[in-house]
Amino acid sequence: MSKLDGVELTKLYYSIGEVAALFNVNTSLIRFWEKEFTVIQPKKNKKGNRLFTVKDIENFNKIYQLVKAEGYTLDGAKKALRSKESAIETPGNLSNEQVILRLESIRARLLELKGKE
Prior knowledge:
This protein is mainly α. The chain has a domain at 14-88: Orthogonal Bundle (Multidrug-efflux Transporter Regulator, Chain: A, Domain 2), CATH 1.10.1660. Helix content is 58%, strand content 6%. The protein is built from 5 helices and 3 strands, in the order βααββααα. Strands 1-3-2 form a 3-stranded antiparallel sheet. Helix 1 crosses helix 2 (27-36) and helix 3 packs across helix 4.
C-alpha cells in the first residue's frame, strides 16, 4: 500500500517538512535520498530551502515503497527504478520490430472492422 493513498496533492510546491510529514520520516532522510537518487530534484529558493513538486513526491513515494515496504537496499532500489524507467514504452525507445508488430496488429483490426460493414 502506497504512503500517498488517499492523499490529494494540490499545491505546486511542498517544503521538506511537509514531505517528511507525508511519509512520517525525518527531513534528514529526505535530504539523504535526494543525494542518492537523481530522480528527486527539488527546486531551491533564494534562501536555499528545498521546494518539492508533486513529481518529486511521487518519485520519493516509489523509493519509499522499494526501500521501506519491499526491503530493497539503496543499490537495489536504484536498479529497480532504472529498470522500471527503461520498461516504460515510449515511441522513442521502441524497436523497429515492436513498431512493425503494433502496426500490423492495428492494420489487422482495421481490416476486421472494414469487413463488418
